[in-house]
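Note to self: keep these together.
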Amino acid sequence: MVESMAETLTDRERKNFAILDLIRRKAPITRTEISKETELNIVTVSNYINVYIQKGLVIEGGLDVSSGGRRPVVLELNPKAAYIIGVGLDLINIIGVVADLKANVLVEVKKPRPEGSENFLIDAISQLIEELVKQSNVSKDQIKGVGIGIPGIVDRKGGTIRWPQQMGSIYISTLKNMLEQKFDIPVYIENDATVAAFGEREFELESDVKNLVFMYSGVGCGIVINGQIYGGATGCAGELGLPDLDDKSKERWKGLERWEADLGLKQAAQHRLKD
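Structure:
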């Protein structure tokens, strides 16, 4: 769970997240299996599941194999119950997708990132979201959130996004408020490496992987500690980008301006494997 979100979730919301995420990962799954994995009692799990079924978030499938007694009903996430929009931007492009609850991508749109002030960028993101909604043929009231991954340091205490030098600066509230007012959809803004690490853990790794460092671009890392994204006190954790260096400094730092530069990681790993 992203750290900034985790800090504000209520106990009920944490349980919702844990149960629904488990169903997404391991469906088809029974109520008893959910109870064992989440360490919530079976009555609590059943109460939550009944609400999900009423809302159409979860559907009951067939019957599981029984070791004795009634065969338990298996549960699955209903991917069409809701949709989300994801937007990512870098120095060159803005990319947006519409996905269902199982992360199946319905639509993808890619556009050049505009130059100029923050207003040009906000307009471009807004137009991209409009195009995504139109192309997806999904009713806007079924879209439950917009997530935006942005390069730079997302400083929640200071309320700013500190872009790389080439991209200027913007206030989190400016971007968030304008988009929420226009689309009436919750908007979540986070560092691009942070959300990349979150996605890697949620969709590519086993649930028992609790700690990882995800190397991204820029130079930036997403850091996961004990299953939660770690951004540090001011959102700087994992941001390793360096300013322009002279030739002597580049040799010293082994070209650490970008991950695509030679960091010597491959050679170091091969050397250690031989040992």
